[in-house]
Amino acid sequence: MPELSGVLALIPARGGSKSIPRKNALSLAGAPLLAWSVAAARESRLVSRTLVSTDDPEIRELALAWGAEAPFLRPAELARDDTPDLPVFRHALEWLAAEEGFLPGVVIQLRPTSPLRPPGLVDAALRVLLSNPDADSLRTVCPPAQTPYKMWRVERGFLVPLLQDGGPEPYNQPRQRLSGTLWQTGHVDVIPRATLLSKHSMTGARIAPFLVDPAYAIDIDTEEQWRMAEQLVERQQLELVRPELRSAVD
Q1: Structural domain count, the chain
Q2: Of 95, 129, 180, 209, whose CB count within 10 A is highest?
Q3: Residue 74 CB-density burial (10 A; 0-12 exposed, 13-18 middle, 19+ buried)
């Protein structure tokens, strides 16, 4: 595991979005969606720098206004609908190394689409990874609303169980008898630099789990999920890291 020589919080926020057009720039309960992730990074005591990777000039300006850095615009070929995370993160690390000589030992991904985070989450997750020398990365997880042992896919017109390791006909068993499963949330990914650049992976093979309260586990991909997130904020029943408008150089 690397020493804690530098921790980079990286927030990917491209301009294009098909499900909710320009959702990263839209206001969620009074602040742009991306600002909620910026706030979580800035609340951390261990994060060295908070950076937004975007291809969009407007989103770049929003990132700066809400307290993040945005020293470059991401190339268009790294901002397509089908662009995976890895080349986006490698681009950011390579740019920082070449232009500024900044070599963070750990990178934290904060996805804008998982905006509701409790205070202290980022640092707690980071400490778990740093205390586990065998882990290639860490991801936040929570119990799923539905067990995947009762999920299906269709092959040649017939239902086939999604999972095959649950014993005889797990889909006919009571839920309480099935193995526990976890759903990955988008709140926090903690990734050592070596995993990204040497293992060429966002996770590696050994992924440490970090459990989060399912009450926070909303991933905004649809307008209905957006409304649900706003309702959760408005009810004020969750302790949340909330955005605060300020300059990146305050």
Answers
A1: 2
A2: 129
A3: buried
